[in-house]
Specification:
The protein is an alpha+beta fold. The protein has two domains: 168 residues, Ribosomal Protein S5, domain 2; 130 residues, Alpha-Beta Plaits. The chain is 37% helix and 27% strand. Strands 1, 2, 3, 4, 5, 6 and 11 form a seven-stranded mixed β-sheet that branches. A four-stranded antiparallel β-sheet has the order 8-9-7-10. Helix 1 packs across helix 3, helix 2 packs across helix 4 and helix 6 packs antiparallel against helix 7. The longest helix has 20 residues. The structure holds L-homoserine. The site of L-homoserine has 12 residues, from helix 4 and helix 5.
Length: 307
């Protein structure tokens, strides 16, 4: 195999009760990445479409993670990368994770899979660190493994039971929120009372995924720690929340570090109804926005074609 084209999906991190720990993979929205073998040693990014981003391999997250992978392999030649961005950077649905995971996944496939998908997380988070300053694994784990994922430690990732009838509604208000700025809003200390509440919800959330107990899942998707600090960044956050629950959402919260918000519901038709209600709220504001609905993507990153 000399060339591969892959689809690297968007993702939702945190899911209200699992800051930096929980992730979920989305369907239908993502980056397409083509990687070709070259005779010249090293990595080169030849083309980026869809968004204006640097082709500098030391700054572009796909280049950074690919270089980290190549450093650990005894490979004498190199690779060229083309990226078609389907996810807007800074949207909060894992734009950097899709690119950082995508390049290492594609190279690994071209080399006959020397690493497992879980082992690739170690390289993808080096790209994440270049994007936001921290090597966070929540988004890249969901991209690589699909479904719901859990980060016990960055080298101990668990794929959770992932009921595929669950669907997401994403509202992306087009305002700039940098992950590093959004992380700076989070306090360094958590009260014991909130630690107990948050860990109780996280445990119940994981249990609910396995028992497919959607009432419990809904009761668990609460955030006492991060959401109160970050929700001020998102116009009409409370209205969106109320509207999603009025329309039978199981959960609602900030997607990753924002500014996107997500609602989780049973079935795509419910997700679309929630999307309509978000549209009504946001049309009254002077803010451009995108709405996306998708089933939980249980497959994760996929090969489109290879030759
Ligand atoms: N868990 C991260 C955050 C999302 O909320 O800052 C980006 O990976």
């Amino acid at each position: 195999m000399n060339e591969i084209k892959i689809f690297s999906p968007a993702s939702v991190a945190n899911l209200s009760c699992g800051y930096d720990i929980l992730g979920a993979c989305l369907g239908g929205i993502g980056d397409e990445i083509i990687v070709r073998k070259t005779n010249k040693k090293g990595i080169i990014i030849t083309k980026i479409s869809g968004q204006k981003l640097t082709k500098d391999i030391n700054k572009n997250v796909a280049g950074v993670s690919a270089c980290a992978l190549l450093k650990d392999l005894n490979y004498k030649k190199g690779f060229e990368i083309e990226i078609k961005k389907g996810i807007k950077p800074g949207s909060g649905i894992g734009s950097s994770a899709a690119s950082a995971a995508g390049s290492v996944y594609a190279i690994n496939e071209l080399l006959g899979k020397p690493f497992s998908k879980k082992e690739l997380i170690k390289y993808a988070i080096i790209g994440e660190k270049a994007a936001c300053g921290s090597p966070i694994a929540d988004n890249v784990a969901a991209v690589l493994l699909g479904g719901f994922t859990f980060v016990r430690e960055k080298n101990d990732i668990i794929k959770l039971n992932s009921p595929i009838n669950l669907a997401f509604t994403i509202l992306h208000p087009q305002i700039e929120v940098k992950t590093s700025d959004s992380r700076a809003l989070v306090k360094k200390n958590v009260s014991l009372k909130n630690m107990v509440k948050q860990s109780a919800n996280l445990g119940a959330f994981v249990s609910a995924l396995y028992t497919e107990d959607y009432d419990l899942l809904s009761r668990s998707m609460k955030d006492f720690v991060i959401e109160p600090l970050r929700s001020i960044l998102i116009p009409n956050f409370e209205k969106l929340k109320q509207s999603s629950f009025k329309n039978n959402a199981l959960g609602f919260g900030i997607s990753g570090s924002g500014p996107s918000v997500f609602a989780l519901s049973k079935g795509i038709s419910q997700a679309k109804i929630i999307g309509k209600s978000f549209e009504i709220i946001y049309k009254k504001l002077n803010v451009n926005f995108d709405i996306h609905t998708s089933y939980l993507n249980n497959k994760g990153i996929q090969i489109i074609e290879s030759k």
